[in-house]
Specification:
GO molecular function: proton-transporting ATP synthase activity, rotational mechanism
Subcellular location: Mitochondrion membrane
Family: Belongs to the ATPase g subunit family.
Number of helices: 5
Protein name: LALA0S10e03004g1_1
Keywords: ATP synthesis, CF(0), Hydrogen ion transport, Ion transport, Membrane, Mitochondrion, Transport
Distance between the termini: 25 Å
Shape: elongated
Largest sheet: none
Number of strands: 0
């Protein structure tokens, strides 16, 4: 009985080590690739002033919409058919990207493998 437990524990430990090794390797590869793209594209993080400008304007817009609900409703009433189509297309694209992420995460197109058996 003790031998079975030790074998099972050794198996779990070896799988965990292999997974950790793969994870570290791929994270280093992605880090190096990101570094190369960052340097080649001459990217730089946004400044504090940029953050303040963006979030201040968003706060002011949200505050004005909250204080004037009738004008906010008129924005929705004036939406054109082309705008609805454009935003609908954006929604479909976002749903597709989310679904693609789910498929990649599960490594299967449909369903989780034996999810009910594990819980």
């Amino acid at each position: 009985m003790l031998a079975r437990i030790q074998n099972a524990a050794n198996g779990v430990v070896s799988k965990a080590q292999a997974y950790t090794t793969k994870s570290i390797y791929y994270s280093k590869v992605v880090g190096e690739l990101s570094k190369q793209v960052y340097l080649k594209e001459k990217l730089q993080p946004p400044s504090v002033g940029d953050f303040q400008t963006v979030y201040t304007s968003l706060y002011k817009q949200a505050l004005s919409l909250a204080l004037k609900p009738k004008q906010s409703l008129s924005l929705f009433k004036n939406v054109q058919k082309d705008d609805l189509i454009k935003y609908g297309a954006y929604g479909v694209q976002l749903a597709g990207l989310y679904s693609l992420g789910e498929v990649i995460g599960r490594r299967k197109v449909v369903g989780y493998s034996n999810y009910a058996a594990h819980h």
